[in-house]
């Protein structure tokens, strides 16, 4: 009789201990954040996809996000074991939202064909890229959920619905508030966000958000610079019992509050894009990029979480980005081409530890001969303006702009930089350094300080380069070039 209560108590205690163990194991799984990268392919000097995948392996990068199902990239990733989030461009959403056969075809051509034995490890399909961006004025808004529904059905038909999760990367402008605890989705998005998040939750998918403290700093002269980083700030934000010491945590918790207001406060969150550019703006430089990215990685891998989610960091974060992309639009700013933690040729820009050692450079990168095209110092450059514009229409000259690493190399230096960028883009073709006799080839590296005069690569042909194409980019660059003083 006396032993019975003790036995019961022991049984209860054992059950409690088992529950605690399960909770501890489960929670430890929740906080194991992964560090991935975004792999964009809008490069003027595109590296071989195989070389890029080897770069992932050498740096133990186990997660990659693609903006579309580029066949060459997908084939290179097959058999690598690297976890892939493959994207669907926004301009495909109207068709996918109205046609189940189009959704079936997309899944067949871009997912099923790679999900074979020894194939690609696709974990997510990103349906659109920031489709609710305020600047789109609702252009894609009505297509997102119907496209998700059709694609989910297509995944089920292909027996992939339980393996691959559909997500929708959202820009942080989808929500707003003056304090994190007051976060809410934009009023015009409340209904569709509720539908979207309900779909994600019912299918076990996370919410994917892109967070850019750099853009907050770039777009607001009153934004406190130290609040953008992780080393402490004199401009902390007090929100009731919570204090925020960096913009990332404040932004993240604003989303947590917005999700809570529509009934999904525990929704897992992945940060699909986050990073800091190294050129093209005053606050974009190597030291700032290293400080931000290393601070972010340490913060996330330290499992610190945020005030609203203590000890629960994002499920994963994807650094933006792997490589510089010289063919990206500069409409948002000249920094758009300089987000890479590696330069276009896979060389680490600065020391960065992703959690498993410092970055390692790409191997087996094949370069053109060590020669450069510069302005002939013996020639009168009074007629060089049109040649300069031509070179910068096709090549990337954004580092010459205010705040860029080559902004202070002088008028002749600007011309030489433009000439060389064009010359390397055309694979050092002899005629591409003529410029009506104003250019000359040199075997002495004309780089000045941090201003690097590149030498092109030979791995693959220049990506998407056509002397008669890219009209929109041409017009934008002509407008941009007019702001640069070359003489």
TrEMBL record:
It holds the Pfam family Glyco_hydro_17. GO terms for cellular component: plasma membrane; side of membrane. Coiled coil: none annotated. It is a lipid-anchor; GPI-anchor. It comes from the Eukaryota. GO terms for biological process: defense response. Its EC number is 3.2.1.39. It catalyses: Hydrolysis of (1->3)-beta-D-glucosidic linkages in (1->3)-beta-D-glucans. The chain crosses the membrane at residues 12-31, 467-486. PROSITE patterns: GLYCOSYL_HYDROL_F17. Keywords: Cell membrane, Disulfide bond, Glycoprotein, Glycosidase, GPI-anchor, Hydrolase, Lipoprotein, Membrane, Plant defense, Signal, Transmembrane, Transmembrane helix. SUPFAM superfamilies: (Trans)glycosidases (SSF51445). One of its GO terms (molecular function) is glucan endo-1,3-beta-D-glucosidase activity. Residues 371-453 form the X8 domain. Its main location: membrane. It is found in: Cell membrane. InterPro entries: GH, Glyco_hydro_17, Glyco_hydro_17_plant, X8. Belongs to the glycosyl hydrolase 17 family. This is glucan endo-1,3-beta-D-glucosidase. The lineage of its organism: Eukaryota, Viridiplantae, Streptophyta, Embryophyta, Tracheophyta.
């Amino acid at each position: 009789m006396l032993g019975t209560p003790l036995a019961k108590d022991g049984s209860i205690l054992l059950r409690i201990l088992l529950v605690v163990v399960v909770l501890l194991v489960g929670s430890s799984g929740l906080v194991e954040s992964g560090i991935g990268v975004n792999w964009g392919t809008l490069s003027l000097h595109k590296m071989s996809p195989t070389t890029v995948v080897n770069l992932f392996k050498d740096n133990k990068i186990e997660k990659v996000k693609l903006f579309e199902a580029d066949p060459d990239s997908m084939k290179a990733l097959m058999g690598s074991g690297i976890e892939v989030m493959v994207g669907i461009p926004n301009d495909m959403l109207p068709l996918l939202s109205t046609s189940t056969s189009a959704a079936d075809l997309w899944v067949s051509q871009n997912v099923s064909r790679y999900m074979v034995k020894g194939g690609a490890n696709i974990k997510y399909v990103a349906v659109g890229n920031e489709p609710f961006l305020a600047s789109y004025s609702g252009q894609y808004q009505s297509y997102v959920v119907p496209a998700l529904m059709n694609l989910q059905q297509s995944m089920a038909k292909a027996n992939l619905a339980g393996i691959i999760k559909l997500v929708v990367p959202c820009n942080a402008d989808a929500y707003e508030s003056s304090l994190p605890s007051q976060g809410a989705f934009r009023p015009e998005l409340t209904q569709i966000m509720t539908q979207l998040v309900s779909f994600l939750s019912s299918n076990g998918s996370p919410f994917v958000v892109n967070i850019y403290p750099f853009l907050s700093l770039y777009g607001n002269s009153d934004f406190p610079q130290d609040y953008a980083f992780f080393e402490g700030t004199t401009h902390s934000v007090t929100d009731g019992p919570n204090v925020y010491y960096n913009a990332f945590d404040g932004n993240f918790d604003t989303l947590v509050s917005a999700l809570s207001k529509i009934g999904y406060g525990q929704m897992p969150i992945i940060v699909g894009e986050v990073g800091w550019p190294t050129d093209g703006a005053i606050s974009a430089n190597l030291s700032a990029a290293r400080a931000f990215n290393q601070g972010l990685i340490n913060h996330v891998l330290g499992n610190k979480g945020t005030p609203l989610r203590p000890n629960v960091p994002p499920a994963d974060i994807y650094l933006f980005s792997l490589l510089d992309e010289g063919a990206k639009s500069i409409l948002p700013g000249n920094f758009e081409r300089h987000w890479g933690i590696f330069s276009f040729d896979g060389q680490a820009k600065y020391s960065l530890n992703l959690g498993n050692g410092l970055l390692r450079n790409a191997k087996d990168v094949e370069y053109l001969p060590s020669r450069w095209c510069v302005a002939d110092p013996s020639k009168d450059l009074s007629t060089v303006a049109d040649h300069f514009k031509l070179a910068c229409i096709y090549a990337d000259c954004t580092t010459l702009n205010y705040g860029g690493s080559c902004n202070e190399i002088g008028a002749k230096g600007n011309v030489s930089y433009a000439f060389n960028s064009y010359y390397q883009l055309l694979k050092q073709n002899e005629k591409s350094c003529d410029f009506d006799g104003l250019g000359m080839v040199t075997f002495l590296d004309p780089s000045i300080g941090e201003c690097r005069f590149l030498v092109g690569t030979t791995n693959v042909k220049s990506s998407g380069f056509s002397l008669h194409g890219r009209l929109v980019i041409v017009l934008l660059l002509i407008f941009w070039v007019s702001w640069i003083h070359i003489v």
